[in-house]
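Let's study my pick:
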Amino acid sequence: MTTIGLTTRDVARELARRYSTMTHEELDVLESILIPRKYQKGELLLKEGEICSGIFWVAKGLVRQFYYKNEKELTEYMATENTIVMSIESLFREEPSHQQIQAIEPTIIFELPKAALEREAVRNVNIQMLYRKILEESLIISQVHADMLRFESAQERYAKLVKRSPQLVLRAPLVYIASYLQMTPETLSRVRTSALMAKD
């Protein structure tokens, strides 16, 4: 299937390139389980209370993962093109998610359903490797973000985000960036101003 000039084969190749070398036959298997989905800006990929049943590969667009605490929206993660997103606790416990995943822009994702991925991983060592590498990457990203919030100043957090995800900084609304970095929009505005002045 073709979407935005991308086929499921293109996505299978990119996943293999990033996570695990595959033969043509293995690419066929990976391609067969990929499900393309389109979302409008503001639409939810995953709602609170739903069970996350797969891993989402962002082919085009921008998404955020968020939850509510004391009636306040808190952004936990954001993903641009060529990035994985999932509610990992809901995925593995097969329990309703406390988190939600929302398209911030018109977005196309390719889903790797967990049941199909696990079925093929049992039969195929390279698909098993791909699955493991995706989960490792997700855990590392979570740990890096947690450590950034624990140990780094507001200026350091923003500088790290600019370096690691420049597209995200350009495209995501400031209120979501501020929430993700656990600072107020006012603090983020000051940090951005001082970073721009330091460049000049």
